[in-house]
Amino acid sequence: LSDIDESGLQDGNLLKWDNVLTKFVPTEGTLLDTIKVLGQTDLTIPTSGDLEMVSGAGIQLTTDPSTGKLTIASTTQANLSVDTFTADGSTKEFELSRVPTQPVDVLVHVDSLYQAPLSYTIVGTSPAKLVFPENIPVNLEVSVTFLNLDTIQTIVQDGSITPAKLSSSTYYIDTFYGDGSTDIFTLSQIASTPNQLLVIIDGLIQEPGADNAYSVTGTQITFTSPPAYNALVKVRFLGATFSTASSISPNAIGIPEMDISGSGSSGQVLGLGSSGGLIWISPASADFIYNNQTFTNASSIEFDVSSGFTLSEGNPGELTVGFTDYLTTISVTGQPTISIDSSRELELVAGPGVTLTTDNTVNNKKVTWAVSVGGITEDILPASTSTYNLGSISKVWDTIFANTIDLGNITLSEISGALSLP
Predict the structure, then answer these.
(1) 111 FRET partner, CA 20 to 30 A, in 43, 229, 263, 285?
(2) CB 232 within 8 Å of CB 177
(3) What local confidence, expressed as pLDDT, does residue 164 receive?
(4) What are the extents of the domains in the chain?
(5) What's the predicted TM-score (pTM) here?
């Protein structure tokens, strides 16, 4: 062959085509240069040509030199089991014998028709329930296939974990030194209650609780009185602790996570049931209190804006009722101010020589004041002596009817039809 360069050819070499030399040249290497795995870093085959296969968790590798076969098998038992139900037409919830962690952990069929995981939910753990959005028609068969052993959950009973089962790193001790003024210290772990801590200051055990020696909030311990200057503070954590608090992702808590039966209906609210769990409640009425009077089981309350009421929302869900126009005080010159009280009534009283008439016509309500000199029952006196005139030069009185006119030093009177002068 004219296009092969055999110079330097050694045992184990390969002949590879060289585009520059336009011929095959000897080279070290293997038939494969790279192994690609989706989502992983590419593997470059070493010049030795050896590729080591390592079995991961749940994987078993078996080789057969006689056949040159490599067998990859799972060590996890499939353990498929099935729950079967027959619908009665009046239920949409079915209790499961195992506890799937999510809808994709089970394979669901209704009347042999596959149901997508989005068409149902898994609610609760004791027991877990398969919940459909609507009741399943009567006599239809519902089958639930548990896909693997991982769907089995074991609940550790209270008090069953002994110290021997806990790692030594489970127990923590924090050390602080007092300065006489600091009363808040930051702990290395989270404490959910003061009783979870054993606190010792200079060899003296401190009573837990805000009413005693200290309180805790998350990773902060607050002492009722600051530890003295250079006082040795030892904080021992009793039992399992956590260095960080796990935050709940947005929208992570839904109806299934709250273990509430069903999804409720429009207008319903969550309330505490007789068994201590949350249930759906349909609020039908409420009590309203006005002017110390309680209206029980009122289904609604109405405000007529045409009567002067106003209704506004300040903060979300906070309603304020007011009035557009209303009277609060009445001021009279030279008299005490009248304040309108809760009776919302103002009484007008007619004095001597004054007559009051009212008109209650819609949109024309009025009070009319009338003064009659003849109705005056008291003396008519000027505000001060020799100040005011009765009539004037241009406007004189026509006739004065009187029994006696007292001019101070002279008194004019009528006796038997004749004017009498003193």
Answers:
(1) 263
(2) yes
(3) 64
(4) 81-151, 180-237
(5) 0.26
